[in-house]
Amino acid sequence: MDKMTTLSEVMRKLSERGIKREFRMNEKEEMKLENSEKNYHPSELIILKTYRFEGDSNPDDNAVLYVVKDTLGNRGMIIDSYGADSNYSGEKFDSFLRNIPVEENDEYNF
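Above: the chain sequence. Below: its structure as tokens.
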């Protein structure tokens, strides 16, 4: 079980390892790495680790962070609130995530 219990703790630890940029889906439903113009397809990414966070007293505090690597070795994260208040509306984001291959990596077991 991971020892890091908050989103901010995990983000700090990832930042110490050089993972500071986010992959984000824009309004055109294109997945991009922060400060990049490349559009990614799920097959060009690999999920290395998934962290889920659940608020003790408020279901609005639910979030998930994915550590992701692209085919060139660039690493970043995808962050999403989940449940009723997802960061992304519609099915496109969920479908995109489900199609990214997962290769869990022990390097990110903090």
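Residues 62 and 83 are 7 Å apart (CA to CA).
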